[in-house]
Amino acid sequence: MGMTTKLIAALCVVIAFLVLGLTAYHYKLAARDAVTAMEAAKRSLATALEVNADNEKAMTAQANAQAKADRLAADLADEIDIANQSALAVARTLADLRMKNADVDSYLKAPVPGALRGLYADKPADPH
């Protein structure tokens, strides 16, 4: 085996080690990038979980507020219905009373005095 053959063999061994070293360095960089990406993903996941928990709290509060508003609206509608029924009953009773009693009818047809009318008007009553 000549000197050239030994030199070529040594050069092949050196090139093989360089290729092996570069491959190992490439995988080391890839592993470092993967660890960095994994840490960033963990931080993103933690942030997303916090935001999700906050959103769930907000949605629960919104649902509770809406349920309360719905209950209040239903209660108000019931009160309005009762008031309307009461007003209608009073109007019917008054109409019946006017039909049956001429004194009540003539009393209710009389004009309201100006001083009293001023209590219910937007403008003060004219005292004349």
| Relative helix content | over 70%
Structural class: mainly alpha
Biggest pleated-sheet summary: none
Query: Average pLDDT, to the nearest integer?
Result: 91
Number of strands: 0
Rounded to an integer, what's the Rg over CA atoms? 47 Å
Order of helices and strands: HHH
Distance between the termini: 142 Å
Strand content: under 5%
**Segments where pLDDT lies below 50 for 5+ residues?**
none
The coarse silhouette is rod-shaped
Number of helices: 3
Topology:
Layout lengths: L2 H98 L1 H8 L4 H7 L8
Helix pairs in contact: 1-2
Describe the structure.
The structure is a single chain. The protein is an all-alpha fold. Helix content is 88%, strand content 0%. It is built from three helices and no strands. Helix 1 crosses helix 2. The longest helix has 98 residues. The chain is rod-shaped, with a radius of gyration of 47 Å.
